[in-house]
Design brief:
- The longest helix has 34 residues, at 109-142.
- This protein is elongated.
- With 143 residues, the protein is an alpha+beta fold.
- It has a domain at 12-69.
- The strands form four sheets. It has a two-stranded antiparallel sheet with strand order 1-2. It has a two-stranded antiparallel ribbon with strand order 3-4. The chain has a two-stranded antiparallel sheet with strand order 5-6.
- It contains three helices and eight strands.
Length: 143
């Protein structure tokens, strides 16, 4: 997997368009998605601090389809099986989380744990509010 802008080894996958980016051309979102409001050909990302020449001849897409670059898991440096839909980091088979009741598919283990914790805390809050409402109703009926 290679950067769709400069054809260097990719470090993540864009949450906006799903294309791969290198360290220079993205962080969660690729430079194209992060600067989509800029005029065509004058992409200037504040987080990148430079103008980016974007290939219009399709060479990046051909290279992405034809070149196999050995990518590594963000956690253990094993071969990549996917990219997290939340943070864009690559993960291997061991660090790709199975979907659960609280978390969607396509997450790395770290994002899966965060999503699962948010879901569990949300359920706890809902149950606590429900119990408080029942207690209030019982106390008001006793009065």
């Amino acid at each position: 997997m290679i950067c769709h802008v400069c054809e260097q080894p990719a470090i993540g996958q864009c949450k906006g368009c799903g294309k791969f980016y290198c360290k220079r051309h993205g962080d969660v979102y690729c430079v194209r998605c992060a600067t989509a409001t800029q005029p065509a050909g004058q992409k200037l990302g504040p987080e990148f601090g430079h103008r980016v020449g974007l290939p219009d001849d399709g060479s990046a897409r051909e290279a992405e389809a034809n070149v196999l670059t050995a990518m590594h898991c963000h956690y253990c440096r094993a071969s990549v099986t996917g990219a997290c839909v939340s943070c864009g980091r690559f993960y291997c088979f061991a660090h790709g989380a199975e979907p659960s009741f609280f978390a969607r598919p396509g997450l790395c283990t770290s994002c899966h744990e965060h999503a699962k914790l948010r879901g569990q805390v949300g359920c706890f809050v809902v149950v606590a509010i429900f119990l408080i409402c029942i207690l209030a109703a019982v106390l008001s009926s006793l009065s």
